[in-house]
Every structure is written in C-alpha cells, then in structure tokens.
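Dear Dr. V.,

Thank you for agreeing to look over these. As mentioned in my earlier message, I'm a first-year student in the group and I'm still getting used to reading structure tokens, so any feedback on how I've presented them would be very welcome. I ran two proteins. I've put each sequence directly above its structure. The first is here:
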Amino acid sequence: MGDSEGSILNFSVMEKIAREGYLSVFKDYGVYGIVGAVVVAILIPLLISMVFVGKKKMKQRGVPVPVPGEAGLVVRNARSVRLIEVPWEGATTMASLFEQSCKKHARERFLGTRKLISRDFVTASDGRKFEKLHLGEYQWETYGEVFDRACNFASGLVKLGHDVDTRAAIFSETRAEWSIAFQGLFRQNITVVTIYASLGDDALIHSLNETQVSTLICDSKQLKKLAPISSSLSTIRNVIYFEDDETSRDSNVSRHTDNWSVFPFSEVEVLGKNNPVHPRLPIKTDIAVIMYTSGSTGLPKGVMITHANIVATAAAVMTVIPRLGKNDVYLAYLPLAHVFELAAESVMLTAGAAIGYGSTLTLTDTSNKIKKGTKGDASELRPTLMTAVPAILDRVRDGVLKKVEETGGFPKTLFNTVYKRRLAAIEGSWLGAWGLEKLLWDVMVFKKIRSFLGGEIRFMLCGGAPLSGDTQRFINICMGAPIGQGYGLTETFAGAAFTEWDDISVGRVGPPLPCCYIKLVSWEEGGYLTSDQPMARGEVVIGGCSITAGYFNNDAKTKEDFKVDEMGMRWFYTGDIGRFHPDGCLEIIDRKKDIVKLQHGEYISLGKVEAALISSNYVDNVMVYVDPFHNYCVALVVPSHQVIEKWAQEAGIVYKDFAELCNKDEAVSEIQQSLSKVAKAARLDKFEIPAKIKLIPDPWTPESGLVTAALKLKREQLKAKFKDELQKLYQ
C-alpha cells in the first residue's frame, strides 16, 4: 500500500519475501534432489506415525476471579494471582526503568542505525524517478551511551529555555533519535505528545494546539511541512530537528522564524553536555505520554498514558515471551507514534535487547528503496524478534500462494504437499511431520523464505487488528516461528491479552496479560450475553494497571468509556465483543459500532463481512455499507491491480487506464462473483453478501486519511468521500 515512509507498511515488500525465496529452492537443489528428499521424508514418518500419541490435557491459561461489585464474567491470567505492576522493584516509571536498564546493560548493544553509503535515483520507463539507497552495516550505540545522550538532550532542552511545565511533541518517522528524545524528556518529567508522521495538517494543528506544545521535535521531512501551517501553531517556541544527509547539505534550514527558533538535535545534545542540569524525575502517576490516535472517526483523541501504565505492560509481556533477554535482536520499523510499536520497544528496553531501526521501504533485499546488490534491513540485522500488523502477514501469505499458483507443475504440487503435512503436524493429526521430516522441509523449502527476514526469527508479535487463522498457520509454517497475537488499545497502552508461545490454536488473542483483568458484560441489544452457551459472550471490558487516565481535554468521552469501581479499580469499555474459551483465552468476535440493522430487522456485522470478502484474490480493500432503510448491503471495493489486470488481459478486455477498467461492467461482474464465492465459503447469510459494489481505483492509505496507521477503515471519512457513489448503489 503506497510508497510513503509514513505508511505503517509497504505491501510489495512482503509479497516479494516468499515469492523469490520459494523459487530459489528449485535453483539450489533441482527437481531430482527434492524428489529424493521427498521419498526419504515420507518413508521415515510412516514408521514414526505408528506410535500412539495421547491427547494432551487442556492447559488452563485464564481463570475466573471474583471482583466485588462487578457484573459479568471476570478473568485473570492463570499464572499470576496478583496483578503485575513493575518488571522489578524500583522501576515504577519509564525514567527509572530506563536508567536502571541502561546501568545493568551498560556495555550491551542497544540502538542500531544503518550507515548511508550512497543515494542514487533510477528513472523508470514512464519518466518517474525512484530513490535507491546503498546502506551499510548497522552502527550500534550501547545502553550506557544512549543513556548519556538522553541526559545530554534533556539538559540541552532546559538550557534552550524550554519550560519544564509545558509539553514537547515528537513528530517523526521511527528512528534511534526518536527513542533518545523520548527518554530524555522523561529526565525532566516533561509529558511527551506523540503524533503520527502521516497525520494531515488539520489533525496536526489540532493535536499541537490542544496540548499547547512549546517544543516540537521532528525529522527533516516533517520540518518542511511546518512552514505552510506555522501561522496556525500558536504555542510552539522551539523546533528541534533530527539531522540526516539532506538537512546537513540544506543551507535553507532557517534557524529562526517569526514564530519559533530552530535547532539541530546534535546541537542541543552538545549544549546539554556542556551545561548539565540536575534531573527532575516523575512519579508513577504522572502523565508520560499524550498519544494521539489516528482515529477512525473525526479528529484524533489524545490518550493520557501514565508512567505506571507503560511499565505495567512491559512487565507483563516480559512474562509471556520465553527467554527474552540481551541475546535478542529486534527489528523496529513500525511507527513509534503507534501504541503497538512503542509498547514493543519498551519491552525490549526492559529485557536489555538490541533494537535495530529500519523502514518499510528498506526492509528486505528487494524493497523499493534498496539498491540492487544491497542487503535489506532484515538480512543485515538478522533479528530474532519483530512485530507485524495482520495486513502485512496477509500479504505474505497471498504473495506466496499467488507465486505457487503461477509456477504450477511439480513446484506447486511439492509446496502444497509439504504445506499440508506441516499443517497436519501443527494441528496434531500427523506425528511424522515433526522430527526429521520437519528438518528436511525447513532446509529444502522454507529456509529460503525465512532468509528474507534474516533467517533467525524465533517469535513474531502481531497486533493492531484481528489475524485470520489461515494466515497465522501459514506464517507458523513458512516462517517457522510462533506468533504472539496481542489484543489491546491505546487506552490500555496495548496491554490486555496476549497469546502464549506454546498455544498453537488460531483465531484467539490469548488470556489476559498479568497486568490486568478482562471481563465480559452482556450486550442485550446485540444478542451477546454472558449466559450464552457453550461460551460466555459480551462486551470486552479491561481493568487494572495498564488502564490509562482518559482522554486529554475531553471529560465527557472519558466518563463514557472509563469507569472506576467501588474497589478503586479503573475499567475501560472497549466496544469490542468477545467470548472466553474454556481455557480462559479470549476471542474477539465482533464490534458494537460495526453492527448495523437492515430494514427488516436483520443485524449485519460489517467487520465480519469485510473479513470474509477481503480473502478474495481480487480485493485489496473493502468497506461494506448499510442503509437502514433498505434490506441489503453494498460495498466499496479497491481491486488488486495485478490480479484484475491479469484477468482483463486474459479476457480480452480493452481499456486505457485502471480507472476505466474499474468502471467496466465485466470487471464489476467478475469481482462480484468472486465476493459471492468467498462469502458463501465463509457461510455468510444471503443478506450479508453485498447486492451491489463499486470499484475504487485508488488505494486507501494513511496519507489519504481513509485508513488509520494500523490500516483500519475510517468509516466516516470513507462515507463522506464516497457519498455519491454509495447513494448510487442504492438507486
């Protein structure tokens, strides 16, 4: 999706991972070598499979707990009777956790950034120019060095005249200096306002003015965006920018404007080093971050996150990922302004792991901005841990399957056979597919795929949206790593539920993290009750140490979504609908805001229908829409360029551009038939299948304001932009 670095991902990057890795297997081993391995691999498992395997007893992962005064089913993590608040004694704030971890791991690698060797431009056949980067090895700073830089930056900021009782904002792509500035601000108990680099002007102005930010910290790319809106920013006094080779060459960077003074980040560090200021440290109830969500409706809301919230989530996740520690290497490329990435990096800091920074456009050897012959970030870093949103993993799966289908013949037969046997092994129905056979397939088929992410991934963290069971299994097999599917919100600092490493089930988000309780409350209007059988169902409500202080400057919304019980525990009402499995694991099955009623009283879950329809190969994105005065639904569909254009070529359809193709009746009919097919396969009711569709030629990106940074649909914005198209579908 898109080529902007402001996006949370770049789809084409991930599609190439498995496509090219899969084909290289046949170049390396040849057909005869693979056939020989197949024979050996099948004979040995035939003997092993004769061994009787008893069914394991279900492991209890979450247990009910009585909470006075609370209606509904309340569940806690089975491994922790008391809620976890801190990773170790004394680490009650991010400032104390950072200082203690830096001292403990002073000589270990902490933050890594790749050296830029050269920057070239390639001209395409249509005349467009594309930037290509030659990147070198990672250059590392130790925990001790990063701590010194953070302290220097904090002192420099005070010396510049920043009022420590005012807020500072970070408006930048993910990079090492983002983290250094973030931790430095806490040395003076300065609340940090985080803003997506992809946020539009109106939302940016709203966020900065509402929080009365006096110092804005940004990268060179965002620095250029400030001039046109400077007259609308009323409280900013200082702008500090992260340097790169572009700003170092740019003599047009003005040091002073009518509204503010501009300083390079390194200059502030030097100023602080020469003029150290005694730290002014926070307490656990102080507001650490006001995080502006990209928001699916209207202007973004600022969530007030305390220091206690951050350390509680970090401490809880530390108990879930096995062997997490200084030997781990984490690849950071998602936006740090998103709660998922910020929480993940907070966990890595707590564990003493190394964090190597990359980007969606330089992630692999075949990424858009990587110069041919240069290693991508993953190949160079060889991470053991990384995060992904479901949209990334869905594209990995689609990329592999499309390439397998295109290749055909023996490679297709081999891949499908191997995949089915590995799937049977994971699901426990084929013992022989473990052991020797697994090793053979890993070496001969899957090793090349895994090498595109460095070949060392041992655990993946997935969050931001529901992950389909098929995709989860696919990644388990092709990438050879368990996926910890997490569930949380900005309002809970990502801390709610997390799949445990040894849980091989799919479609669930695990038990509550040990920093919180999760309860279900009946929603009678929607038909979800805690008395439902065989599993209790209801609205997901989260309480405990990770629950934030509410929305900045929005008491009404805070009172609506947050409640405090008679015991003083704070609860957040998510609006999500879930159910608890017998082992205490949560499954998210619906969302209150996504459930709408048709004219004749039938309810449609928009999210459920969209999840089914997007499995069509023709679909890149889809939004289902319901007019309550009609008895059917309609849909806006963003088609996959590659798939629909290939179909058009084979069908002999003539068109001058993609927009014209999307308007052709033949294309609409072809895609609608595909949607009906996948809808029936997903067992949707007839009224849940869109009766009419409109094809939208342009992709929906965070930059367009039509999806969030985590790629969730912004329904109100989509409905407003395509108002006329939706009305015509009901005519």
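The second protein is here, in the same arrangement:
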Amino acid sequence: MRRATVLGALAALAVALTAACAPSVPGSSQPTGGSGAPAEAGRLTIGTTADVVNYNPLVGNSRTDSWVTSLMYPHLTQMDGAGKRVPYLATEWSYSDDGKTATVKLRDDMKWSDGRPVTADDVVFSVTAVQKEKFGVVAGLITALDKAKAVSPTEVEFALSRPDGTFLDNVGFWLPIVPKHVFEKAPSVQKFANDSDWVSAGPFKLTKVERGQRYIMERVDDFGPGKPVIKEVVFRVFPDVNTEVLALRNGEIDLIGNVLPPATAAELKTDPKVKLQQIPSLGWAHLQYNTKRKPLDDVRVRRALAHAVDYEAIRKIALKGYAKSSNSSVLTPSLPDYADLAAKEYAFDPEQSKKLLAEAGVSNLSLNMIYDQADPNIARWAPMVRDAAKKAGITIKLQGLERNTYLDKTTKRDFDIYAGSWAVMDNPPANLGLAFKTGGFINYAQVSDPKLDDLIDQGQRALTQEEAKKPIQEAARIIHDQVYDNVLYVETFNIAHSTKWTGFKPMPSELLSILNPLSLAAAKPAG
C-alpha cells in the first residue's frame, strides 16, 4: 500500500490537543470582556453577520452554517495553517499501488451525543448518500468513487473506478460525517432539515437557538481528541461588520468570525485591545469571460481584456495592500509546491488591448459584468475594472446583484464577465477539474479544451504530488495563455480577536479561519 505521510501531522495534532486538554476554568454567568475584566475560559463569544440557514452539514455552505456545523460533525481530516491535511476522525489514509483502492483508518474513541460510537458505517453512509443523490460540491469531487464499504468499525475501503490521487484529500477534508442511524430515516438525505434534536460528535454541541440573536454551543467533555478549554461558545448575530467591530472594541464579543474587509483591518491595526491574525488565502479573486459568447470565444479578445485591468492599483487601493499577485496563474504563491515560478502577470497595457481587438476585428466592445454587491472587496474594485477598461476603449456595464440573483446567473452562465472569488482552491488537480474541465461543476467560463482536459486527467490520476506537478503546471499555463481565468490577486486574510484570548490555530480558509474545531478546542485566555 502507498501510505500518506501522517506522522508529522499527528505530532502537530498532539501539540494542539495538549492545549485542548488543559484544565478548564469554571465559567461565569457574566459576559466576557469589558473594561479591565480578564477573559474567561467559560465562554467565547463570536460575532457573525448571518443566521444559520441549513443545519444539515452535507447541504449547508454559508459561513455561519459551516462554522456551527463544523463544531458538531467531524470530517476525516482537517487543515493546518499551510493547507496540509492533518488527522481528525481519520488517523491514517492510503492508496493501493494501482491507485484503484483507497483506505482510511479511524479513531476508536469518538461517539455521537446519544452515546453511540462513530464508526466506519457512518462514513460509508455519508459518502454514499452524496454519491447517490449527487448534491453539493463534494459530489463533483468524488466522481471516481465506485463503492465504499466498512471493512471494520474503524476501517473504510473505497473502490475507485479509476486511479484518483485527489480522492482522499477531497473526501477527507470536504465531507462532513453524519450519524447513519439518524439521517437514514429521512427519505432524502439532501432534503433532511436536521433542525432540532441534534445528534452530533464534535467538540461542542448546539443547545440553544435564538434566531437573529444567538446560537449557544456547550463543550463536549468526553470529546475523543481532547476536552476543549472553553466551556461554551456563543455565536451572536449582528447586522453588519461595523457593528461587529464596535462590539469587539467594547468587549461584547471576543472575536469576529468573518474575515475583515481590508479597510476595516487597516483601522483596527493600531487598536491595543485587538489582535489581527494574518494568513494568505488558498483561494483567489478573478474575472472569468464567458467563452461561449461572441466575441469572448476569441482568445485575442480575452487577452485584450486581461491587458485592460490595472492589477496593482486594485491590490493597493481596493485591498489596502492586503493582497499579492498570483502572476495571473491559478497556481498561486500560496501553493509553493505547485506554483510556477515562470508565470508572469498580464501587464496593464491599454494600447496592447486596442491592438488585440483590432486584430480580432472587434470595435466598440461593450460587455456586462456581474458581481455580488454585498461583497465589500469586489464592490470596491469592480468600478476600477470598468474605469481601466475605458482607457482601452472597452465599455463594461456593472451589474451589482443581490447574492441569490448573482448565484443564479452564475449557475446558468448568464453573463459576459463574472467577477468573483474562490474561498479554497487547495488541491490543484481536483480544483482545476471542477473549474476548467469540460462540464466541470464550477466551470463558469464554459471552457472546453481537449488538451486541457487530458492534462487535468493526468494530474488527477497521479498518486503523488511529484507525479501530478508537471501536467498540472502545463494545464495552468494553458489557462493563463488562453485567459480561461483572469486571476487578479490572492488576499491576505485579517481575522480579529480580543488580545485577552490566545491559542487559535488559523486555517487559510475564509470559511473556517480560526473557527475550525481544532482551533476552538485549543483556544484559551491569554496569560
């Protein structure tokens, strides 16, 4: 069997859980924070700007959904600060030599809140439900799965229809494990609301919901990987980020769950009561051009558009310097094991844009660009994209949309230019398949390139990163040269919390940031 490297990850986890198993301090009925008051290990209060929409972890995908349900339902693996997989429910994972069988070994000390053990049957049920009903991003990541079976209560075997070196990373990190004995009673797992009487198996359990106000979660004292320091986690709902910031400064909350807009981070940088944790994103912000619409089907037009963007101005002004160049590549500097050092960012050159448009026989180019008007970063730089394009004689009409409308248009590929961002793109062979392979789940630009498909397939079949690197780098060069994606920047995330707390373990993910289970299990009062 070809073994994954997990010894270093296990050592890192042991350090985290040493902190997590430290003696807890008795809680208090009084709020944490306040003038001169020491932080209490009894309660950690987190600000969020949205309610939970879906308590079913296999379906929910909003930030607050993820934050709450990730503390209730385990995944096979978690992620460290460098984006590497570390054990959680799984202790070890491997591929057979031919790559058509994947095996995962599980902890034997985790149990559901009703007392039943978490076993391989729960893992098999969870992945099979997603495979059968074909819902969510996970379904698009496990297309190689033929069948999963429980070899023993602590071992799962996945039979694959083809070698897929991305499978274990994908199923390990992205798939929440749910209790079979609860979810199997529903006619459809996808439609199961799971909105009361929760049976969970994380470091915290949800005990009280006051919609629009707060979500209260209590510590699980016999949590297998280790007892958290914090006795109670409270998510408080605020109308916007500005109100969250005021609450943090006043000591009403201990941390802000969502990543701060760059302008807000710049304001908080000098506040002695606030600590900013910074970490580069594993995702990126980008523009995609609908390759099925004329004249965007012509690479010369797409290159003209790429030369009509002032990338450095966007990073300096809209992002306040909290961003770096991706070198116009989908293999960003946040992934040093894959990044192509030869990649170069498209230069902002309006004259070159005009020349390319003339070669393509295109004049008076006018295009619509959709974006989520609630996204503070994109709302700042969308007008900058429009204004820079004017210098190249290109008219871009901005369509700032309500989020659901924006998502609907994106899903239907109803746009000329799509402005958006990916939160986590941490596994290039898998991610490029989703975003750029013909028929890919998030192939919004409707790319269909046989050579690119073949290279992505080669990368996915590779069972080691070393084998995958060459075809994936070549695929990324095609994406760059054909402008199938115009990557603008990689954001440096700013996560704010009170200086009265320490021990958080950030993930390079806007969805999990410092609210991931291993981070909150290790968080403790400073000093």
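From my reading of the second output: The chain is about 30% helix and 20% strand. The radius of gyration is 23 Å. Does that match how you would interpret it?

Kind regards,
E.
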